[in-house]
Amino acid sequence: MKITIFGTGYVGLVTGACLADVGHDVVCMDVDQAKIDKLIGGQIPIYEPGLEPIVKHNAEAGRLSFTTDTEAAVAHGELQFIAVGTPPDEDGSADLQYVLAVARAIGQHMDGYKVVVDKSTVPVGTGDKVRDAVRAELDRRGLELDFDVVSNPEFLKEGAAINDFMKPDRIVVGTDSDRARELLRETYYPFNRNHDRMIFMDIRSAELTKYAANAMLATKISFMNEIANLSERLGADVEAVRRGIGSDPRIGYHFIYPGCGYGGSCFPKDVQALARTAAGCDYEARLLNAVESVNLSQKYVLFDKVSHYFQGQLDGKVIAVWGLSFKPNTDDMREAPSRALMEALWKADAKVQAFDPEAMSETQRIYGDQDGLTLCGTKEQALKGADALVICTEWKEFRSPDFASIAATLSEPVVFDGRNLYEADMLSRHGLIYYAIGRGRNQFQVG
Question: Could you give the residue numbers annotated as active site?
């Protein structure tokens, strides 16, 4: 099938590469000429494990190409996937300007039947706005052309996006058109051979399904962080609690790991956007607002622990930070807990020596020549001359470090673990003081 993808970010590039990999003829369009030039030259602008070889293989095979030519892109595909960003507006609602710009461009250039597929995460009712935008352009051109609008939300995890696309749990398609339904079924047939993963529904339900899924996962994280904070005050160990409740199949172990808050491009903005959507129809989403509030507070738990340990005297202190991306296996730092920590440390006149396996360039892009920030080539280098170590991201290479070396290198033998990677007894044997999240009265408490 001939498919066009608008947008070459995480969703667009992964979608285009994976659809090409099963044999479809895919054109990826983006207005960013520099990004397209890099992709044509074989450079991948984002870090996503497994993506680069799939892009290169299918580009060489002629099934995947890249362009900034909107007219050519619209002409290519019978299916037009919109996979552009929907950043939060000033009030937290989703900004649809890029989605609607693509819809207008399709209406301006289409000369036959098209299926316009909303792959971007968009609020309920966006399908109607996309349909109106396409129709308005056709009316302006004096044309009567058939087209359908479909909601096909993505459920990709950064760091595991390729596997998520190739082996999906479900493929949600919102449409009221039999013709569009069959074209989407044909598109996704290669991913359905084991069993049918496609779930068809109306457009508005599909749009809400995406937000509801992310809001549910975010709720589990914030709930567990509440329990962690309570554990510290009650002398309980949240890791024991986690195992105790996770063994219940109605709860499960996924997304109940306490920590220093969630980040990324999806959970923060999607929870906010759904809450604003609720407010727009005169409903107060009290649970969603609480989920967001708990997460914002949780991002400062590590700073509070560090500050309390040093009795508020952080001026001139050097803090080693391991992990800058919001999660492992990505270089994405959007809404990352590390940012809240570092910015609070700088405000307190402390210095940061940081290391991340993949997010160093992104950190440099965001903070530039920020006073008080030193980006280190290795995790060991970040420890030299530091007064304490803080772990923000659970990268695999942080899970079994040389604790004796850490104790010998730090000026103060203290570790603040925002992801509960270690056990206190293990670090104690090496002379390290260990503070984690919700690990009982033997752990450091704030307040």
Answer: 266
